């Protein structure tokens, strides 16, 4: 192959041409076989990577491993397997992989220094998976964002908000921030309040609210709910309402209870006052 430039094809006769072909044919054949083997290695490698990832997922899911850990390990195995496959292809074509790995390591140090933020995100992802402050499917509030955890990847975590938006938060920032996990426990307390006018029958108002809570099947009897006078405000008397519910029923119970309290108090002629101020004028 290296002598092709020195061959003058225009001045060759048939016998000379046949000799050149005979001399070059093994080299063309070797090059073709190398390409064929490279394609086979690529196909087999891709198939093995796919099988390995599926086996890993099934094994981890069968062992009830957290979904976030499964996603993290799957991404890590994918990157590692692709690196091995690329190095194998380079070695097949005669490229010295040892020197390539050395160059890659040196480049990795330089890239690592320039991508410190990405490395902190990677470390943050590992901390999240080890400490488990939340899992995929949990509803959390962190970094000023609130939503359901959809995915925990190598470098970031994706939240799915109630208004159908995806919020991507870097793992480094997330691991160093305050995280409120609303799904960590099976039950939650719903904190509500309503103001009634001064002069209202407080016992009747509290009994009416308690009857609303007792009628709702989604409200738990244990722990017991709380209905109590919480504040004597400028415009009215604040009644505190605190039932306990399963975490999944939080919003439904809150919205339904507030609506029922309003309707029942109105039917009982118990006023819910507007903000007001009484002014006394001296003669």
Automatic annotation (TrEMBL):
Q: Where is the Mechanosensitive ion channel transmembrane helices 2/3 domain?
A: 76-116
Instruction: Give the domain of life.
Output: Bacteria
Record's keyword terms, sorted: Cell membrane, Membrane, Transmembrane, Transmembrane helix
Q: Does the keyword Transmembrane helix apply?
A: yes
Is Transmembrane there in the keyword field? yes
Q: Where in the cell is it found?
A: Cell membrane
Q: Where are the transmembrane segments?
A: 35-56, 76-95, 101-130
> Which residue ranges does the record assign to the Mechanosensitive ion channel MscS domain?
118-183
Which InterPro entries does this UniProt record tie to the protein? LSM_dom_sf, MS_channel_1st, MS_channel_C, MSC_TM_helix, MscS_archaea/bacteria_type, MscS_beta-dom_sf, MscS_channel_2nd, MscS_channel_C_sf
Instruction: List residues of the Mechanosensitive ion channel MscS C-terminal domain.
Output: 190-272
- Topology term for the membrane: Multi-pass membrane protein
Signal peptide positions (record): none
Entry's PROSITE patterns?
UPF0003 (PS01246)
- Similarity section: Belongs to the MscS (TC 1.A.23) family.
Name of the protein this chain belongs to: Mechanosensitive ion channel domain-containing protein
Q: What organism is this sequence from?
A: Hominiventricola aquisgranensis
Give the taxonomic lineage as stored in the record: Bacteria, Bacillati, Bacillota, Clostridia, Lachnospirales
């Amino acid at each position: 192959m290296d002598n092709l430039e020195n061959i003058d094809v225009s001045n060759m006769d048939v016998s000379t041409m046949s000799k050149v072909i005979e001399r070059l044919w093994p080299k063309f054949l070797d090059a073709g076989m190398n390409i064929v083997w490279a394609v086979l290695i690529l196909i087999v490698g891709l198939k093995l990577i796919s099988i390995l990832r599926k086996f890993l997922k099934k094994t981890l899911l069968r062992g009830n491993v957290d979904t976030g850990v499964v996603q993290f390990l799957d991404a890590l195995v994918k990157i590692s397997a692709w690196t091995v496959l690329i190095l194998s292809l380079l070695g097949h074509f005669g490229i010295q992989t040892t020197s390539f790995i050395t160059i890659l390591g040196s480049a990795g140090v330089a890239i690592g220094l320039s991508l410190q933020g990405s490395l902190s995100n990677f470390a943050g992802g590992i901390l999240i998976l080890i400490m488990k402050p939340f899992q995929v499917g949990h509803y959390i509030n962190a970094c000023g964002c609130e939503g359901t955890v959809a995915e925990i990847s190598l470098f970031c975590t994706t939240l799915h908000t109630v208004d159908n938006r995806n919020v991507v938060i870097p793992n480094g920032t997330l691991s160093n921030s305050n995280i409120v996990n609303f799904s960590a426990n099976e039950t939650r307390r719903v904190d509500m309040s309503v103001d009634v006018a001064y002069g209202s029958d407080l016992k009747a108002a509290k009994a009416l609210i308690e009857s609303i809570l007792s009628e709702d099947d989604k409200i738990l009897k244990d722990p017991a709910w709380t209905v109590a006078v919480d504040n004597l405000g400028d415009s009215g008397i604040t009644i505190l309402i605190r039932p306990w519910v399963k975490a999944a029923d939080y919003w439904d119970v809150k919205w339904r209870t507030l609506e029922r309290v309003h309707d029942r108090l109105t039917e009982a002629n118990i006023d819910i006052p507007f903000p007001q101020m009484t002014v006394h004028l001296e003669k």
